[in-house]
Amino acid sequence: MALFEYRITPYDPADLDAAAGGDSTLIAHDMREHMAAACIAAVAGFALDATVEQLTIDNPMAEGFFSFSVFAGRGGHGLSGLFPYGNVGFHDGARVPLATGLGLLRAMVLREGAWCRLQADNGFFVHVGDRDDIYVGGGREQGNAVARTRILGLFDDRIASSPYDPALDETDASRAADDEFCSEIDSLIAEHGGVLLEERHRQRIPLASPDGPSRGRGCV
Asked: Is 203 helix (H, G, I), strand (E, B) or coil?
């Protein structure tokens, strides 16, 4: 659990509300690369001070749910060159080197399409918001990283918690695809002619049986 959390922004916090509203940005197009480089350097400072070498991807999206679709599709949503074998490695729970995590940060800051949360085993995390802001946190105060952030021309302020904390996620209750569930699906198809079914990965622990490993039943 992160005990010290910060918001990093190119805007003076005193003028933040006036500087950007909703999911808009006031960073000029020809300045975005410069701003992205400053953000990467700032977050790298926090990560190195927290002795982070690997990050875990959480809730990845090829096209983020903010206005990151401004440049959607350009350069493969910002993922090109970050993973071997295309974008196969961009999935929930993937562990990536810090350098790859910083590459994902760059894609998010430039609004190239991709979005995800990044976290480490020691509680360190990075979240990119919809107003050119970055939320970073860890288990201890990072005064040196904060000082470097200001030298890079960015602003920072201590916050109570990130608005993108996974604990705040609203998720529907999951159901197993058992006989009762499949019977309900059959009834809905008979009534409406078809249904839209969303599947989510859930880790299963195989149970030993005389006939070999068990296999989950699915609705056909």
From this structure: coil
Give how far Cα 212 sits from Cα of 35, 177, 186, 206, Å.
Answer: 56, 21, 30, 10
pTM recorded for the entire structure: 0.74
Residue in this structure with the two tokens 């430039």, named with its chain if needed = 110
d(Cα 204, Cα 216) in Å, to the nearest integer? 9
Exposed, middle or buried by CB within 10 Å (0-12, 13-18, 19+), for 193?
exposed
Distance CA 89, CA 84 (A): 7
For residues 86-99, one letter each, b for 16 or more C-beta atoms within 10 angstroms of the residue's C-beta and e for the rest, the string is: ebebbeeebebebe
Task: Decide: residue 46, CB within 10 A, 0-12 exposed, 13-18 middle, 19+ buried.
Answer: buried
* Cα dist from 167 to 109, 162, 171, whole Å: 23, 10, 10
**Packing angle, helices 32-49 and 98-109, rounded to 10:** 150
Q: Which residues pair with 6 in a beta bridge?
A: 136, 158
Per-residue pLDDT of the chain (220 residues; tens, 9 = 90+): 557 899 999 988 676 655 555 556 777 778 889 999 999 999 999 999 999 999 999 999 988 776 655 555 566 888 888 998 778 899 999 999 999 999 999 999 988 889 999 999 999 999 999 888 999 998 878 889 999 999 999 999 899 999 999 888 876 566 667 778 788 888 888 887 777 666 654 433 333 333 443 334 445 5
128: left (phi over 0), alpha (psi -120 to 50) or beta: beta
